[in-house]
Amino acid sequence: MSEMLLVLLAGGAAGVLNAIGGGGTFVALPALVAAGLSPVTANASSTVALVPGAVASAWVYRRELTPVGATSIRALTTISVVGGGLGAGLLLTLPAASFDAAVPWLLAFATVILAFGRRLSGALSAALGRPVGMSPRTVLIGQFLLALYGGYFGGAVGIMMLAVWSIGLGLDTAVSNPMRIAQLAAIYLSATVLFLIASDALSNPLVLTAMLAGAVTGGFAGAHLGRRLSAWLLRSIILTTAVTMTVLYFLRG
After folding, report:
1. Which residues lie closer than 8 Å to 209 by C-beta, 6 or more apart?
2. Residue 173: Cβ-neighbour burial (10 angstroms; 0-12, 13-18, 19+)
3. Cα separation of 245 and 234, whole Å?
4. How much is the average pLDDT of 146-162?
């Protein structure tokens, strides 16, 4: 019972984090490992469990979705679905050690970009004499790589998304947050289909159900909370989450 309570609370915290600032995987994954799941199974199970929470958050934000630059929402979502599924396939076939070593540095880079991305974008625009902006093709290529990572591991992929959009298009993190959540749901959904078919994610249904119940509640509540926060406070929470997750990941490694 104590393990189930831990998993339930971790699922709730992960759902809230994903809805507000990202990084829910860093809460869900250790809880599932502590409950007795192997790292690969825990990774797959956390993705499966966090899907409903991500979908619930995306539903709350559905009227606040805005295109990423000139890239259509449909095209971006399609790329997220494809990349998420392929990334899940990589998780089931490749060792995680080599990629795991690169994650802290990816997070550190993303955190710096989140903090200074719009200023860098503005400085580049001034230096070039024209607005800095990624082409739709570049946005889709970047999103595919992020979705591939999201399906493979998923930790802080939403934070990395905001960082790329910030430096490449000068988008504000608060304005982009609803789209981040929608794309996170798309990545998780396609990865979940493969995990349910080819992984051991269903080997411990009680643990999975507890995590899922917490994530749905947290995702729904977190999205409503995020909508009520001021843009400045939401940006601060996202950046604080990014810094915290980066530090924790370096310490873990």
Report:
1. none
2. buried
3. 16
4. 83
